[in-house]
Amino acid sequence: MKAIIKSIQWNNSRGYDEIPLKILKISMPCIVSPLTSMCNKVLSSGIFPVHLKYSQISPIFKNGDETEMSDYRLISLLTSFSKVFEKAIYNRLQFHIQNNNILAKEQCCF
After folding, report:
1. What tens digit of pLDDT does each residue of 9-26 get?
2. What DSSP state is assigned to residue 1?
3. What letter does residue 103 receive in the DSSP assignment?
4. Which residue, 7, 13, 77, 84, has fewest beta-carbon neighbours within 10 Å?
């Protein structure tokens, strides 16, 4: 879990909980054990916490006419904890797929 928290890029974006990644990284020695337990519980139960599914949606202007909705793209700002859980679940899933040779060699792109 420490490696996952360290690997997440520093940025100023934060989700609805307003907890920046900087705080998460600074408090890592104190929270790594509870976070690991929570992540293991999520993986064993198959139930992802509802509040970690929420995101803050923000429109970002691409180019063109600023009055046209089609000239914006939406981004979802997730909470720091959601990012950590997502990375942990991805790592476990990737490890399982590779170790059990689940994907065919002919598998490409999608």
Report:
1. 767 677 888 888 888 888
2. -
3. S
4. 7
Task: Identify the three-state secondary structure at position 74.
Answer: strand
Could you say which DSSP state residue 79 is in? -
Name, in order, each residue with C-beta under 8 angstroms of 13's C-beta and a sequence gap of 6 or more.
77
CB 66 within 8 A of CB 59: no
Provide the token pair at 22.
């900087």
Residue 2 tokens read as 């420490």
Query: What pTM did the predictor assign?
Result: 0.75
Separation between Cα atoms, residue 51 and residue 72, nearest integer Å: 27
Q: Please give the full DSSP string across 5-62, using - where no structure is assigned.
A: HHHSPP-S---TT---HHHHHHTHHHHHHHHHHHHHHHHHH----GGGS--EEEEEE-
Tokens of 81: 């904890």
* pLDDT 10s digits, 71-95: 999 988 888 888 889 999 999 989 9
Please give the structure tokens belonging to residue 53. 């599914």
